[in-house]
Amino acid sequence: MLKITKSSTVNEERWTLCGQLSGPWVAELRSNWDQLRDRSQGRRYVIDLSDVTLIDERAEGLLGELKDEGAEFVAKGVYNRHLLENLKSTEPRPLRTNGRAGHRRFETS
């Protein structure tokens, strides 16, 4: 189970998550995020993971996407802080040549 508590100010949307960020709750967080982004442009987005007890692999991927889309994170605990520090970007790195003229490739994390 995951509980999402939302609070907002003129400049900030803050979500406090409590419980397990796994299974169907990953899609629920994505759905809520998409709705938020559609109606509150220009705000700072903060997601507090301090009370999250489990983050599965799909959730890690989603957090990387949210980071790429402008989310900032708050976390307590060694594991959650470590996870956030090491989130992989879902954005591909810029093209670079591989040493042969005319051949390029994407670099991914």
Describe this structure in words.
By secondary structure, the chain is of the alpha/beta class. The chain is 33% helix and 39% strand. Strand 2 (12-21), helix 1 and strand 3 (44-55) form a beta-alpha-beta unit. The chain is globular, with a radius of gyration of 16 Å. The two termini are 31 Å apart.
Write the layout of secondary structure elements.
Layout: E1 2-8, E2 12-21, H1 24-39, E3 44-55, H2 57-68, E4 71-74, H3 78-85, E5 93-97, E6 104-107
Parallel strand pairs: 2-3, 3-4
Antiparallel strand pairs: 1-2, 5-6
Name the features.
109 residues; alpha/beta; Transcription Regulator spoIIAA; four-stranded mixed beta sheet; two-stranded antiparallel sheet; 3 helices; 6 strands; 33% helix
Instruction: Tell me the radius of gyration.
Output: 16 Å
Order of the strands making up the biggest sheet: 1-2-3-4
Would you count the extended β strands for me?
6
- At CATH's second level, what is the architecture? 2-Layer Sandwich
CATH-derived topology: Transcription Regulator spoIIAA
The CATH class designation is Alpha Beta
List the helices and strands in order: EEHEHEHEE
Overall tally of structural domains: 1
The proportion of strand residues reads: 35-45%
Termini separation comes to: 31 Å
Low-pLDDT runs: 93-109
- Helical element count? 3
* Form type: globular
Question: If you average the pLDDT, what whole number results?
Answer: 81
Report a brief summary of the structure.
The chain has 109 residues and is α/β, with parallel strands linked by helices. It has helices spanning 24-39, 57-68, 78-85, and strands at 2-8, 12-21, 44-55, 71-74, 93-97, 104-107.
